[in-house]
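Format is chain and fold; as here:
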Amino acid sequence: MSGKAKTCRELGYMMPAEWEKHDAIWLAWPYDPTTFPDRVERVEATYVQIVKEIHEGEEVNLFVIDEPTKQKATKLFKAANINLDRIHFYVSDYADVWFRDYGPIFVKNQNHELAMIHWDFNSWGEKYETLLKDRQIPDVINQKMSMRCFKPGIVLEGGSIDVNGKGTLLTTAQCLLNKNRNPTMGKKEIEKCLSEYLGADNFIWLKCGILGDDTDGHIDDLARFVNPATIVCAYQEDQNDVDYDALKENYDILCQSVDQDGKKLKIVKLPMPKVVSDEDERLPASYTNFYIGNQKVLVPIFDHPNDAKALAILQELFPTRKVVGIRCVDLVYGFGTIHCISQQQPCPA
């Protein structure tokens, strides 16, 4: 007699914190001029810098759209003295670069086994029809990896959640409770699913995201765990800025929040850059969109006076890792930066 399929939690899996050891980083090579108008080559150069900085500490699994693109990327990597033995290409059809949101989330158990979660991806509330085909990417990955794969059957993007690996999860009401994601599910139903598949028991709900964020308030542009008891929070000091009220409200919520053991969390403010497009529209630039690698923390910077301040704050919070600024002036034109384009694959051990 067959019973109901067991969840991740029932089988001992949970999502590790991003600072726990990785086997690899997952990326998808940029190629679409619709996402990066008149600047694809400059975004490619940004990718080369990201790969060069991160590949010494972890393997790089890289999607490319076709063989000519693979050859082009290979040539650029060679010119940058990148060790190609550390790069693993996946030649496959995909629409865009936002791997954090359409790729799998990896979970692990105490038996040193890795599994993946394949969430539904609806291009941030069906905003971009041409990007819907990226929902297939977890299946493409697992054709090669052949690991246990859980399919919760709900819409969720990786950029909408952040965990401390101990049972506490950060998210926003603007995104996860948005009716363009899971219209039949309320807060309790969402929390139950996150508990069953990510191992979270304690939830911190922030309110709204920043102007220009087409994801409806992803947490990775707002607040991130840097260790189990510390969160960095994007904060706008200028009271006349359009983001001031939303970011202050989020900061105030965090200051009143506790971890899974009921203990107060340390909240550290990160300044905000202000980045606008050629059309004078605000772009969703935030220093919290960093990637925590095994050896380095890659932080987006924007030719803004607050760049140095943000890097210094983060370096103090990551004393055992080198904090590296990656210029993302062109990448942010696609409405995301380093965390949005990446997904970590944890080491099961």
In short: Residues 226 and 232 are 7 Å apart (CA to CA). The two ends are 34 Å apart (CA to CA).
